[in-house]
Amino acid sequence: MDIQRILTKLRITELNEMQQHAAEAITGSDGDVVLLSPTGSGKTLAYLLPLVQLLDSTSNDVQALVITPGRELALQSHQVLQSMGCGLRSTACYGGRAAMDEHKVLKEVKPQIVFGTPGRLNDHLDKENISRYQIRYLIIDEFDKCLEMGFQAEMQKLIKSLPGLQRRILLSATNAEQIPQFVNMSKKGTLIDFLPEEEQTPERITLYEVHSPQKDKLETLKQLLLSFDDESSIVFLNYRESVERVNSYLREQGFTTSCFHGGLEQRQREDQLYRFSNGSANVLVATDLASRGLDIPNIQNIIHYHLPESQEGYIHRVGRTARWDATGRSFFILNATEHIPDYVEGEIVEYAAMSSQQTEPPLPRMTTLYIGKGKKDKISKGDIVGFFCKNGGLTADDIGRIDVKDRYAYVAIRREKLKQTLHLVQGQKIKGLKTIIETIH
Predict the structure, then answer these.
(1) 33 has which bridge partners?
(2) Which of 99, 170, 253, 308 has the highest CB neighbour number within 10 Å of its CB?
(3) Are strands 301-304 and 233-236 parallel, antiparallel or unpaired?
(4) What CATH fold (topology level) applies to the domain 366-439?
């Protein structure tokens, strides 16, 4: 295939350095590739140009799947391939339109490459609208978003369903993610890192040390959290059992917490993260599993109850606060035998606000309700708002974040309206459907 002709058609004089490295890694080896490069640097062409040289344009089988976190990127990438005029056929599949219409397109076009979102691609594979047996290449674009908690189950199912998969190409504009084991990256893979060097801890984060008189830090943690009032905080520990113990203690002391670690079922993880992200819990008690993939705004405090096990782990932890242009704080709780690791950079000051007058943990502003119907039942966010306003005595200002899944939905409402709302909606139907409505604890 004449790559120079494609570049001329695209009015590109030459590939940039990142694209050249990517092309060499993808065409020059048979291993997996991880490409890290800033937004706008040309990552789509960086994988498409070498990929089209590896596919058979005479075949009518799908040979490559490109997974994207959203429909916009799927459609955009499909359009880039079309503009290349390389003789390969493609289509884009994503939610928000009828899968039956996409099935017709798949039958007509007979694409060699399909761009799509995880859920919709799984749907087509399950229905055998896309044959899984000739797919050799899997590209995960913006894998930092595709591999977030909300996508984990869909991604795992999709990857396990490809028996002939030979190579994986992962692309991202950030290195803030750990690649889950189910992606099955080969050990002989290549990392191409063109991300700019960044400071370890942004200046927007203030570092504090807090000394615990006892080896067991529970009481010190309690007093520290009380000094924060109702600020959003993550408490990091290194072991699942420790997370459960600390979470139980804080709940006994009256704190409203979420608990998060790898031992929880997927649905439990979603429940706990949702409560924290929508303001129904002030404190998230978690292992380092929560240090990657969480893009929750307005987390003010990161607390290292256990010291980070590595510099990388520390950087991921503090990366949960001071997102975008916000400020944040990072606290090390130390007993007499501990000291702050040498790899921690920046000025560290002793926290002097532990003598807070607050004696009772503040309650969160919101609480979360579970609704036992979702997208598959033709329930939308608008339906949920209308239902609670009409039947639950709420106004639009009383309702916070709403997430509608396939078979259920979450909705955050003002805590002080909870008892009244549950009483009013008892036995009521949403769009004529009887359903469960209950609080998530």
Answers:
(1) 169, 190
(2) 170
(3) parallel
(4) Alpha-Beta Plaits (3.30.70)
